[in-house]
Amino acid sequence: MLKTAHGQSQLLTDTYHAAACSARDAMSYEESGVVTAVEVLTAGAYECPLCKRIGNRRLGPNDPRPPFHLGCRCTTVPIV
Ligand SMILES: [Zn+2]
Asked: Hey, what's the torsion of the CAs at 5, 50, 57, 29, to 10 degrees?
């Protein structure tokens, strides 16, 4: 658990950065015209129970994209 204000602000910054990257990835996948689906890639040994359930699943076009929660380290990989 992060107890310092700096640690909490870093967690927020990392999560917003992950959200921006996820949105950028979704746009580039769509623009590519060859991506048929995306699959969730989790943080391996660092994954939380929620992300462990979601890991390696394919997401539909209207499914939420990572980050799924504050501090989520998941990302997506394109399926062509
Ligand atoms: Zn996650």
From this structure: -20
Cα 31 to ligand 1 centre (Å) = 25
pTM above 0.90, yes or no: no
Mention every residue, 6+ apart, whose C-beta is less than 8 A from residue 67. 15, 18, 19, 22, 73, 74
Helix (H) or strand (E) holding 37: strand 37-41
Alpha carbon of 18 to ligand 1 centroid (Å): 10
Residue type, 39: E
Instruction: Report residues of the chain scoring pLDDT below 70.
Output: 1-2
